[in-house]
Each structure stands twice: as C-alpha cells, then as structure tokens.
Amino acid sequence: MQDWHMHHYLPTQRGKHSPQTITVTGQGTVTVKPDTVIITLGIRTEHTNVREALSENAQRAGVMIQALKAIGVHEEDIDTASFSIYPKYNYTNGISVLVGYEVEHIFDITVRDTKTVGNIYETAVANGANIARHIQFKLANEQPYYQQALAIAVKNAKEKAFVIAHTLGLPLHDMPIQIKEESLAPTLSPSLPSTVVLAEQQTAPPIQTQDIIISAVAQAIFTY
After folding, report:
1. pTM
2. Of 2, 45, 61, 219, which sits 20 to 30 A from 11 (CA to CA)?
C-alpha cells in the first residue's frame, strides 16, 4: 500500500540575480508485514528466603528455556532483558516488617517466524512463565522498503512542483537544484496494547500481526 500527503507552497524569489524557486515537500509511504517479532516475558518467584526465591526462579527459567529450544527457538534469540530482586514488606501501625523477597527474570525472545508467536507464548506459560511485557513487531531489514518510500516521496515532490508551475504558467526546470531527505521512524498500524496477559490455557493466544508503516519525506527546490 502506498500513499502521500499534499502540502501547499508558493514560489519564492531569493534576489534580483538569483534564480526564482519553488520549494515543495513530498511524502511517500509503504506498508509492510513484519517478519520479526520480539516478545518480552519472564518469571516472577517469591519466597521468605532470598536464596530460595533465586533458586526457584533459576530452575523455572532453565525449564522454560529448554522448552523453547525444543520447539525451535535458538539460544542466541533468548536474551535477558532484566533481572531484579525486590524485598517485600508488610506495614503494621506504621512499622515495616520484611516478609520476603521477589525475584523477577525477564527475557527478550526474538521470533523469526511470526506464525509461531502464539505457540511460543503457550510453551513459555506451560513451562514456568507467569509475566509478560511488550510485544514488538519489526523488520529484519527495513532499508529496501524505506528506499521505496523515499522514491515515492521524491516523485511526489516533483509532481507537486509541476502542479504549482502549471497553475501559475511558469516554465519549471525539470531537475531540482536541491533535494533534502527527512527520514521518519517506522510506525505500527493498528495499535495493540503494550502488555500481553499470560494465563495457563490449552490453546495458543491469537496474536494478531501488525502492519509496519515506513515513511520518507523529501524536500526539493526547483527553479523557473
């Protein structure tokens, strides 16, 4: 899917002996299906003894990682995003009493086959995961799509310059004297909640793949 937006500009004159110019901005957009997903999930354990909380967390994390590797997730695609230990307190009559510890180990899992995302969630939950954070849809290489968007933006800028020149009856030169590229960050459409709720279940959660919108902007100056 490709589209562009129109902006309005007027011819300018930079001086008595300078060429008269028209400045326009073109925008090009390409919509692409992602080929990579990064899911962030992990394991939270609690115990009155910090060593026990750590030991249980490490054991459950090991089981989860082995289960994910068994369904085809490569070890290098499983990375620790954060590891935290929190003391837990009870407050009674204004007095805090240490009652235990909470250990949280969060992983970023890179998924290179978007159709397997639901199965990875299901497997992780069945093997110890009890917390999820973000899910990110990405492209392994967005440059070819950005180049397409940039080409559309340049073409759009040229078309707008010729519309202005034709409307005013100006003899516009075919080639611009200056082009400035202004890249835009990829966006997602439509949006999804940033958190995925994990619960033990028999079927994989229906993860819907989001489109990635890649845009480019090109400013061009034409003389007449």
Report:
1. 0.69
2. 2
